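Why do we care about 3D structure at all? Because function follows from shape, and shape follows, mostly, from sequence. That is the central idea of this module. The next example makes it concrete: a single protein chain, its amino acid sequence, and then its structure expressed as tokens.
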Amino acid sequence: MKIVKAKDYNDLSRKAANIISAQIIMKPHCVLGLATGSTPIGTYKQLVEWYNKGDLDFSEVTTVNLDEYKGLNRDNDQSYYYFMNENLFSKVNIDRNRTFLPDGTEPDSQKACDAYNQIIHSVGGVDMQLLGLGHNGHIGFNEPGIAFEKETHCVKLTERTIKANMRFFVSENDVPKEAYTMGIKTIMSAHRILVVVSGADKAEAVKNAFFGPVTPAVPGSILQLHNDVTVVADEAALSLCEGLY
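And the structure:
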């Protein structure tokens, strides 16, 4: 595991975007695993900037996203498809037919998960998977205690996650209670993994996930067993890890 220390969020975003852009340049037809959430936004913004300068070409890139809320269609401004479209897809020359997310409109969970597993296998797996890290060490929607051997599956969102998401919806009743997510097994099958973490509020999670024991109680800890992981974190996120890397 390689730890890259960034000065701040902007520096983190540039460093992470540089790693992704190198992947695209080295393999123009690569498969990128993408993540949503606040941390990757700066990374996507930097990639778009470089695309606009003519430094990047997304025309042959395929993407598969980590997760999607169950019950939200793509036009819903809280869906992850909408997020990806707003932050990346609509701003670069990517082929929309090669951008994949779990189908949040499919009510049959098994059908939705099987279909997404098939998509991931059909594109040949993920060359580079981008991840964030939750406060409790979760990756994707894989909360503590979820088995490491799972592929794409449907998860019931924790009360903490539902409460955290309430600010984005009109009422609590509108907040999705379930989501489809890549499982740990799928994430660990990626050839390379890039984790971006920012802020002092993530310092404990960083220490537990990357320098603590490997346990389902801290899902991100499994990444210690992958042979090609780069963590790009700012000074605040690494504040409890001095001398450990």
